[in-house]
Amino acid sequence: MSERQTYDVIVVGGGAAGLNGALMLARSRRSVLVVDAGAPRNAPADGVHGLLGHDGRPPGELLALGREEVQRYGCEVTVGEVVAARRDGDDFELALDDGRTLRARRLLVATGLADELPDVPGLRERWGRDVVHCPYCHGWEVREQAIAVLGSGPNSVHQAMLFSQLSEDVTYLTHTQGRPDPDQARLLEARGVRIVEGTAARVRVEDDRITGLELTDGSVVPAGAVAVATRMVARLGALESLGLKAVPHPGGAGEHVPTEMAGVTGIPGIWAAGNVTDLSAQVGAAAAAGALAGAHINAELVTADAERAAAAA
Prior knowledge:
Elements: E1 6-12, H1 16-27, E2 32-36, H2 59-72, E3 76-79, E4 82-88, E5 91-96, E6 101-109, E7 113-116, H3 123-126, E8 131-132, H4 135-138, E9 147-150, H5 156-163, E10 170-173, H6 182-190, E11 194-196, E12 200-206, E13 209-215, E14 220-222, E15 225-228, E16 231-234, E17 247-248, E18 254-256, E19 270-272, H7 283-312
């Protein structure tokens, strides 16, 4: 890697979206560098699920395979965090936390999101194990257990409905969301979901497994797993200096970077893909979005190169 080189594309973020975008670009004979901070969102999970051909594969193993694949086509991968970013003419200049300065003609932002959990002691420690958020990512693994759904976000009732497909023992704890409206309550009750009004004080754990949610009044909702709606916030850091902004998601789930088709951000030269823009995207959807963005970036560069050559001629 040369600090003096100007890459066709720097991909910021080495998860599924970033690596698949890099794969499409490298296969198009573009000079590509992936900068990965090494903190994937799904690191606490035992396996990736719902991804055909890779169901159950540990997240770290899947990313290692992806890095190996992109490097076969000449893509470079480096560990680092962008601490400063600026536009320099038509190009971009990125400073990394180890002092390196990198240049690129285009950027693909695939930095993902951060999950903000409710302030209930014990949730963070069990996150990705028996504290879960997605019935499609983790539901099979907690099936037929007693599941407590914490009313912590605007989609918590919907979450309880989905987990009721996986267990006949589901309790919805109102927590910060208050009692569901009559229509919601009617549907929950029809699915056999118990509604408990109260506020969670802590997660009870015995012998390294969850046994329930203790409420502020001292009562306990028995559970072997807890489902929680996190507040999902796009991770941008220093890239905000380029004009990227995370805005409230229309569904109330957190903050994302809005994009148009193929990850176009509206800021010339910058695309975004994966959870940084689509908060609910699973690994397969994030990878597909990265591939589409990579193809779109290559096509835009082909046109730019052709126009430059035509002007020179």
